[in-house]
Amino acid sequence: MSNEAAMVPEDAQLTDGFHLLMEALEMNGIDTIYGLLGIPVTELGRLWQARGNRFFSFRNEQNAGYAASVAGFITKKPGICVTVSAPGFLNGLTALANATTNCFPMIMISGSSEREIVDLQQGDYEEMDQLNIARPHCKAAYRINRTEDIGVAVVRAIRTALSGRPGGVYLDIPARLFSTTMSAEDGAKSLFVPVDPAPSQLPGPDAVARAVDLIKGAEKPLILLGKGAAYAQCDDEIKALIEETGIPFTPMSMAKGLVPDTHPQCAAAARSLVLKESDVVVLVGARLNWLLAHGKGKTWGGSTKFVQIDIQANEMDSNVPIAAPLVGDIGSCVAALRAGLSGMEKPAAWASAVAEKASGNRAKLSTKLTTATPVMNYFNSLGAIREVLKNYPDINLVNEGANALDNARMIIDQYQPRRRLDTGTWGVMGVGMGSCVAAAAETGKPVVAICGDSAFGFSGMEAETITRYNLPVTIIIMNNGGIYRGDEASPEHQVSCMVFNPKTRYDQLMIALGGEGYRVTTPEELAETLDSAIKSGKPTLIDAIIDPAAGVESGRIGNLNVVSTIGKK
Q: What is the pLDDT of residue 364?
């Protein structure tokens, strides 16, 4: 019996670490956990489900972590991931780091070996100093050593994950703590809900005035929406800002649908033009990182001035000078801009020029989407998918790959916010199936995943997770037989490192895992099969055969690929 239990009167009702952790999570509005069970957390899953809660059990902790992070993005509450110790912890750590990089609130809870053995490196089961390994990869890492501290630890994790710039938090729980007992009465007193864990942060009046003056003086302004704007869930405010000012807007990939892609002010189809020619760009929840060429170079005009909304002050000037930094939460900053810009003269000539360019580009693209080819390519296959998805505006679209990602982002329109989930800031492959589970679980709406055949390989066994929980997920594999493309010649001694087995039948794999599987070779077959799959609500995989020569290396970021020049002229 533990020392804590020995101090409790014999007739007192007891609780333990398992129950205190579950009660702390429930008290804070959490009813869903994503994870993979084993020593020492197996019982946590069983007990959690016995209380009427949901536990989605995965085949790999990394995918469970991606699901938890996506749940955080969709719900604006921390997604919870539970892992076993050491190897399981390391598997989940990639997803925790990805959540922090993407500003998704997530809490990873891992069981760990006993401290006294780990600290002396005496060789405990799955011995690892998990706390210190996690620290560089998340906003904060905490270890709980006493049952009476479980409540405060959960609250600290929630506040840290949500406040300021959201991100990942790690909670380390030594195995012994789960079964350690204490008085149920004292345990209940130790649990609480944080007051205002993510408080509003108002921008300074001078900062607002500076931004307003800059925008009003612009001849060619642009509003650029990042996924932070989608996460903020102030959709109506952002839409009103765009429509009241008449300023063209363009979304980053996970901000698509915050204002519908079909909106007349959407400049996504004229992206190159607006980035090059805009004189003032208002960044709403977007960072000037590699996805925006760091705000400089040929992508931009060279004299662009930026208004940047970000809750973290040191994000400003990270690559180029920010003329009008607005430090605060997005909702408060957008509301302040709306008030200051009320009645401003709309940039009619600029908006008209952008709309004309966008219309022309869409017309050119439309031709590619309907051009027949002997074997499907990315354009006519995605064109067929696009026409089907127009009829399902609230569907969740998960997208990963190289060419599958870049082309789908350009071709598939989004109509509602937080319905597009993709590889994010890091461009991580393998987020697909975890994202599918979370999207279906958190929204209750159907999911369509468009994946490259290479990307699917990172998390493909989670198709079994999808069938096990009977989730309404349709997976489309853009199968061109290789990484980027499937027609690279092989050396004599071995198959090329860039091509896959042409006999692979992903559709048969899905059938073997308990779902529906189909192979299609024409846009017409693809459209018909996709529509039927969505209507059925059954877990389905469509193996869409694409021309092996379709695709380009590294998608649209081939400039980042390092190429040897030895022996070349």
A: 95
